Amino acid sequence: MRLQPILTPAFPTAALCFALASAADAQSSSAWLGAHVPNGLAAPGQHAVLDDGHFSAPAATVPSGEEGARDLDGTRIYQDLAEIVGFAHASRARGDLMWGRVSGFRSAVETADWVAARFREAGLRDVAVQRYSADKGSAMWWPDHWEVRVLADPALGVDTRDVVLGSAVPARGAEIPGRLLTAPVIFAGDAGSLLDHDVTDKVAVQRIQPASGAFGQRDAVGEGAAELYRRGAVAVLNYIDQAGNMHVRDFGGCRVCFNIGSEDGAFLRDVSERAARAGKLDDLRIRLYLDATARTGLSAQNVMGIVPGVSSEIVIVNAHLDGWYDAAGDNGDGLAVLVALARHFARPENRPARTLLFVASGGHHSTGLNGPSHFVAMNPELTGRAVLVLNLEHIAQFLVDPGSFEVQRAEQSMGWGVTNMAPPLLALTDRAKARFGFALRPQYSTSVAGDLGGYASLGVPRVQAIHAGPLYHTSGDVLESISVEGLERAARFYASWTKGVTEMSRTEIDP
Ligand SMILES: [Zn+2]
Q: What is the pTM of this model?
């Protein structure tokens, strides 16, 4: 499947609805002082290696005797994942600029209902979609509309037309008083080593080159923005220099602040440098538009279903159902494997020793709507019987080289976290890892940074694998970036691990 360049939907506000400049029109050599004009939102070009539809990682190991576990088949799980990603596509098709499966909004309601239907089909008990309201006093920053438009000026070439930066997305919490801001724009250098330019009363562009996911650059972005404001900038654009020209939904607290992808960033840098050489920097202007509000009174959904075991003690298996953009790897893959495990263990021949409580949690990305903490509060009897919580999160994405963005025939390596580092749990991990080749990094830790925070109050061990690769929280986190074989590896690993933990004594689980 080829990934087509993704074009931003037409700007929806009538008052500002000028004809969009066509990139092709603006491409002539006299436009923009000869700078190359970007072509809108686009996934990394390297995704083209997935074109043939046969891009694959080595097949998952299926130990003899386990061939019959057809619910764990990667192709089957991938079909479910495609349906999960479909809810994000529908959100986008409805015109959501910040599309995804977002708790508090319709796309997450649809996803929750879909999971409940799969749980019921599989024969789980007590299947329920549990709705909960946002924490008192919480408000979720939400951008409805925005536009970042570089304004044409004859001084920059006679054929110069406005350029709308298709990858632009407001950073969390951004706000423009009066919604519109027009000012000169200047490339200010790399965050961490900003150039000595005068940014007074200007929109300053700082470049960030993430060594891995943009996730690791939050401090650098914040410090760079603070420095630019100290020097008098009126707004900051974070030029996230990754492949393609992607939306990056990350960073916050940088006031009047948008993230832009690498092609849009390269354009601004190039045209800014050309304008500086030509003595025309003041003619290079940009207009920022942002309609963002603090949403209150939102609600979200958790989905639960039970597979009764021989014992009434419970192992919770959790995956968050929400995500930004297509969110195939955060966390469509974890959710699809959750459904596969529910089907697998619901079969009479796979009845577990302990009871399994499957939870598809909401609100991982939505302020005041944390799914696990609401789930614990709403289900004290069930969660009080829990002896361990296992979380499935970001578990089957192809390894993407952080420098070249080339997709590798393997999965992204994941950190394995076990809060209590109980030796029997680690030994169980070693055995399952060796058996199925699940891509865990060799060093295990107590870190469970992900959806498990809301379960901390239970005081039981919490366990997960997770990665934050280069596509994390970007519009490049698409279905094609997920490994079919990796889904099967994850499903078989977790089925084996879950079975093992349901059969352990409590002292082994929590010595
Ligand atoms: Zn996640």
A: 0.92
